[in-house]
């Protein structure tokens, strides 16, 4: 059975529960910005000040500061819980509403970004994006229809293309024309879906290639936008980077395995050193025991159990001055653990 730990540590543990009771709260930080502001203003982000942020989960509502930042504090909620948010600001509307419903996690490491825009601007953009997609679809339809009306290779190429797209055999130009009309109707429906997807994109978060291609799209130059995206050879770059990630992951895993082996061996040898110190104690070999304790604590200096044991050993041999220094070291570690809320570790290492 263990001896009781030093009185100073006992007193520290008596304050543990009340200290930790104040540290159960977890926070969720975020930032509120104006959609596409950096894209339009040459890299300068417009932050939304004075937006009201709240959650139906236990938390105190807050207001964004001059940098659009906010922090909600949740009481008695475990890290990782989902907490939907509501963000309001007069004259503005949240753009990425789905993120606020599904991706808000208490205690997340990255800051949550909320994009807002004027409702009328969203409506204008939605209408503009639809018109661009609709106009492009109509242009494709008219060009193909004109090709089908001409005899020769151009008609056949158009029929072959439609046959591939519909995955069926086309026997006549009339049949191809009917399918082409169906395709136009489908493309017009897709135009509305594309508009809804495009309107919630915050271009500030996208890369330079995406921004340049999207700008061409907004100008109606859809083919040029596609050329921009083709210029970076997406299949090759995706494949190359996937191989780099795979190779890097393999190297990292090998290094981590080597590190874990070393960590395990160090832990084994720390235990071996403590065992050796205890065996020297059993034979009243003071210097040898001190040497073994010191070796173990050199590589595990934060181990409260071993520090406590070493302190007791020194006290038993009348080394009060040296034991005081070790005791102060243990106190500092225990206080730091309390500030982190690591009560389990303290109670385990100082169990009595």
Overview in brief:
It contains 14 helices and seven strands. The protein has 352 residues and is an alpha+beta fold. Strands 4-1-7-6 form a four-stranded mixed β-sheet. The chain has a three-stranded antiparallel β-sheet with strand order 3-2-5, with no helix packed on it.
Q: What does this entry look like structurally?
A:
The chain has 352 residues and is α+β, with helices and mostly antiparallel strands. Helices cover 62% and strands 9% of the residues. It has 14 helices and 7 strands. Strands 4-1-7-6 form a 4-stranded mixed beta sheet. Strands 3-2-5 form a 3-stranded antiparallel beta sheet, with no helix packed on it. A hairpin with a 7-residue loop joins strand 2 and strand 3. Helix 6 (153-166) crosses helix 7 and helix 8 runs antiparallel to helix 9 (222-230). The longest helix is centred in the last third of the chain and has 49 residues, at 234-282. The protein is elongated, with a radius of gyration of 34 Å. The chain starts with 6 loop residues before the first helix and ends with a helix.
């Amino acid at each position: 059975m263990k001896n009781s730990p030093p009185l100073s540590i006992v007193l520290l543990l008596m304050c543990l529960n009340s200290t930790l009771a104040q540290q159960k709260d977890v926070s969720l930080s975020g930032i509120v910005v104006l959609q596409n502001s950096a894209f339009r203003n040459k890299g300068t982000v417009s932050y939304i000040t004075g937006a009201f942020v709240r959650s139906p989960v236990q938390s105190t509502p807050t207001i964004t500061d001059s940098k659009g930042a906010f922090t909600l504090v949740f009481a008695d909620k475990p890290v990782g819980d989902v907490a939907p948010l509501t963000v309001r600001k007069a004259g503005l509307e949240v753009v990425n509403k789905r993120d606020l419903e599904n991706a808000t996690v208490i205690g997340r490491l990255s800051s949550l970004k909320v994009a807002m825009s004027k409702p009328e601007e969203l409506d204008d953009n939605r209408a503009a994006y639809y018109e661009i997609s609709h106009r492009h679809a109509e242009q494709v339809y008219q060009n193909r229809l004109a090709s089908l009306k001409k005899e020769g290779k151009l008609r056949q190429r158009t029929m072959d293309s439609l046959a591939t797209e519909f995955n069926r055999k086309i026997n006549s130009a009339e049949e191809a024309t009917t399918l082409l009309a169906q395709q136009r109707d489908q493309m017009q429906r897709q135009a509305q879906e594309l508009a809804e997807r495009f309107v919630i994109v915050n271009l500030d978060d996208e890369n330079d290639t995406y921004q340049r291609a999207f700008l061409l799209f907004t100008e109606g130059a859809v083919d040029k936008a596609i050329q921009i995206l083709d210029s970076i050879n997406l299949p090759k770059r995706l494949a190359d980077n996937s191989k780099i990630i795979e190779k890097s992951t393999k190297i990292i895993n090998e290094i981590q395995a080597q590190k874990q082996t070393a960590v395990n061996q160090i832990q084994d040898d720390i235990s071996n050193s403590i065992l050796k110190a205890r065996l020297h104690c059993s034979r009243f070999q003071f210097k040898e025991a001190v040497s073994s304790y010191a070796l173990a604590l050199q590589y595990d200096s934060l181990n409260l159990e071993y520090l406590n044991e070493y302190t007791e050993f020194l006290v038993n041999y009348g080394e009060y001055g040296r034991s005081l220094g070790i005791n102060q070291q243990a106190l500092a570690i225990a206080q730091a653990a309390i500030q982190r809320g690591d009560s389990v570790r303290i109670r385990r290492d100082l169990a009595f």
